[in-house]
Known about the structure:
Blueprint: H1 17-46, H2 48-51, H3 64-72
Amino acid sequence: MCKASTPKPPPVVERDPVKEAADAANESQGKANAEIAMRRKKLRMSSLFTVGARGLAGSPTNTAFAQAVSRSNPTGGVQ
């Protein structure tokens, strides 16, 4: 005859709520930073100061300020 086996107790899961909260906060902060960076990039790409009247096709992505500085200072350095 078979010997009756006792059921195994479930494994104990050790949780650290502080670590879990910190991990969740870090993950959400990373997502928020990525979203902000994407918005800033879109804003820069759509700005007329960045792309000029011609748009992105065939134009450099220098800002109007950088172009003005390079025209006023042919050495390229900051005055």
